[in-house]
């Protein structure tokens, strides 16, 4: 018996306007200055910088370029860091914690400037982000964060009390929230297609559907075996994030892929969209495993995403969970039809902080923890400067040591469903306490 269809299509909504377009096949170069593994935002951004600096550089992707997370995401330019400021301060001290937060601001500005100066047609809309609070305790906590961001970093951020919430979002589920005007939305697949266009024009070669199979030291460089044959590379950069496979076992044991899923509604009436999302903002929530959602760039649909704790196949339960979440927020959408639902992999380090690091001569740029629209281009660009030995331009608060090893883990995240359920339980307890 077939499971009921929750949505019309199981492919990303984004691929309707920007289908995957693998570049024409090219002969492989036997020798390269730099070989990049992965052609998502991180790999392409690094390749663009390296090619413009005159390096012979090629990016290899096991799938079509962008088919990983970079054309599947929500397009929210959050650039957020999972651990909160108090945790960062406890771990690294106040100076470093503030430097990490300040880097978020710099990375967002870099992205917006890049889109503008390169003329990337990717529906970027600097509309701001609303974060909904579950209960007054969480409202007060996120209001304090907004105040600190405004004071310390000059970000336009402010609290929105419950009484004013409906000016921002047509739900009563939250007990107020905060707004940040430095965050906006873009069309992720158009952004990737445009990045690919300028990277190719700058001299980067991109090989689609050509996995890298192994990377071994060879004299002062590396012998990289690809599905199209061996390549001698002076340097190697790994940008495989949530799709890391056995070709890079060191990273695979340190990076956990987690499914994130999105549903897209059918087109809604303009008056419904105006009532539910009056300011067309990006939306996030204060709980640990919350939803992220937004209007489509044309303002006609709602796209809502969240964690998907399944690991194999394409089961129906996670789709229904998101649908239920959508209706809980907006009861008038009870009978709404969904046009698309799809998932992709985000990548979590043990400490939930993005990374550039070097191990045995190979440079790695990954661990974006679900916030790679801002971080992947930024970290990719810095990784390129690191490879070229540009110390000053490579410097970032993320130039860390390799992420910690995860015990009993070799690339099969068997523990993830239980982990996500644990976080959901914590959220339920917090929401129950808030409702008393
Ligand atoms: C559903 C979803 C929603 C998201 N929403 C947001 C959001 O709203 N905002 C935000 O900031 N971030 C979001 N993200 C995260 C964001 O999409 C990612 O962090 C970002 O795209 C990572 O880019 P990347 O280049 O590092 O990796 P990817 O785009 O995942 O690319 C990695 C590539 O490596 C390739 N690869 C792996 N192994 C090999 C190999 N051996 N040989 C060759 N190639 C290989 C893969 O084929 C893949 O194409 C979301 C992610 C998902 C899945």
Automatic annotation (TrEMBL):
Keywords: Oxidoreductase. GO terms for molecular function: oxidoreductase activity. GO terms for cellular component: cytoplasm. Residues 33-385 form the FAD dependent oxidoreductase domain. InterPro entries: FAD-dep_OxRdtase, FAD/NAD-bd_sf. This is Glycine/D-amino acid oxidase. It comes from Bradyrhizobium shewense.
């Amino acid at each position: 018996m077939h499971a009921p269809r929750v949505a019309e299509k199981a492919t990303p909504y984004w691929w309707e306007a920007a289908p995957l377009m693998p570049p024409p096949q090219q002969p492989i170069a036997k020798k390269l200055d730099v070989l990049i593994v992965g052609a998502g935002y991180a790999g392409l951004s690094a390749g663009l910088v390296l090619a413009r600096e005159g390096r012979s550089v090629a990016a290899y992707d096991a799938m079509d370029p962008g088919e990983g997370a970079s054309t599947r995401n929500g397009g929210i330019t959050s650039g957020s860091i999972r651990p909160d400021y108090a945790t960062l301060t406890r771990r690294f001290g106040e100076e470093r914690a503030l430097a990490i937060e300040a880097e978020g601001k710099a990375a967002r500005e870099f992205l917006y400037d890049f889109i503008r100066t390169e003329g990337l047609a990717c529906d970027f809309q600097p509309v701001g982000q609303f974060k909904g609070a579950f209960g007054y305790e969480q409202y007060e906590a996120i209001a304090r964060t907004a105040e600190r961001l405004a004071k310390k970093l000059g970000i336009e951020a402010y609290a929105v009390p419950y009484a004013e919430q409906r000016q921002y979002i047509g739900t009563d589920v939250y007990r107020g929230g905060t707004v940040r005007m430095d965050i906006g939305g873009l069309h992720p697949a158009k952004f990737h297609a445009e990045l690919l266009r300028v990277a190719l024009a700058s001299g980067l070669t991109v090989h689609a559907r050509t996995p890298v199979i192994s990377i071994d030291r060879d004299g002062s460089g590396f012998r990289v075996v690809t599905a199209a044959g061996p390549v001698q590379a002076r340097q190697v950069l790994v940008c495989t994030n949530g799709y890391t496979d056995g070709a890079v076992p060191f990273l695979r044991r340190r990076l956990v892929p987690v499914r994130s899923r999105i549903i897209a509604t059918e087109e809604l009436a303009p008056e419904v969209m105006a009532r539910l999302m009056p300011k067309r903002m990006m939306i996030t929530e204060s709980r640990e495993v919350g939803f992220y959602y937004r209007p489509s760039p044309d303002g006609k649909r709602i796209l809502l995403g969240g964690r998907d704790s399944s690991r194999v196949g394409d089961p129906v339960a996670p789709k229904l969970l998101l649908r239920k979440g959508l209706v809980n927020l907006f009861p008038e959408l009870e009978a709404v039809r969904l046009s698309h639902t799809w998932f992709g992999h985000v990548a979590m380090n043990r400490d939930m902080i993005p990374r550039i690091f070097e191990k045995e001569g190979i440079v790695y740029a990954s661990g974006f923890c679900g916030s790679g629209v801002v971080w992947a281009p930024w970290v990719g660009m810095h990784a390129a400067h690191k490879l070229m030995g540009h110390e000053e331009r490579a410097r970032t608060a993320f130039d860390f040591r390799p992420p910690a090893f995860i015990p009993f883990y070799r690339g099969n995240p068997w523990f993830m469903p239980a982990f996500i359920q644990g976080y959901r339980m914590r959220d339920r307890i917090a929401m129950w306490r808030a409702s008393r």
